[in-house]
Design a protein that fits this description.
Number of helices: 3
Largest sheet: 3 strands, parallel
Mean pLDDT: 82
Number of strands: 6
Low-confidence stretches: 104-123
Helix content: 10-25%
Order of helices and strands: EHEHHEEEE
Distance between the termini: 31 Å
Length: 123
């Protein structure tokens, strides 16, 4: 891997996933994001969204993460997400699926081979 063309992808650091057993990881992720952006490298955040009649709801009766505040990025990372190269919303547990484009990072930052540049995070 060429680290010079790598992006840091922060996966699903959302209120609905982070709990008392995982909260200890938030400061470490926050520090990593700060170091990565400080080095001028791109950061991409993902957010998982469950939806009515999803497989998780139908098969497991799991109805969480269908809207704020559960779907919001944790407060400690919200500012970094607002400045990120992209915030990618998804409805599955992986960013890389047949429905998602193939992400790559070049000199101009992260791009998608099927969708052009990654969208800029909303402020």
């Amino acid at each position: 891997m060429d680290i010079g063309s790598a992006a840091l992808v922060v996966i699903d650091m959302q209120n609905g996933f982070v709990n008392e057993r995982s909260r200890h990881a938030v400061p470490a992720v926050s520090e990593l994001v700060a170091q990565w952006t400080g080095a001028g490298r791109p950061v991409v955040f993902t957010r998982y969204f469950n939806y009515p009649d999803s497989p998780y709801e139908r098969f497991f009766e799991w109805r969480r993460l269908q809207g704020p505040p559960e779907t919001d990025i944790v407060p400690e990372l919200a500012e970094a997400a607002a400045r990120a190269q992209a915030v990618v919303d998804k409805t599955g547990y992986t960013l890389f699926t047949p429905r998602q484009p193939n992400w790559s990072v070049g000199a101009a930052g992260p791009t998608s081979s099927s969708a052009g540049s990654l969208p800029k995070a909303a402020s």
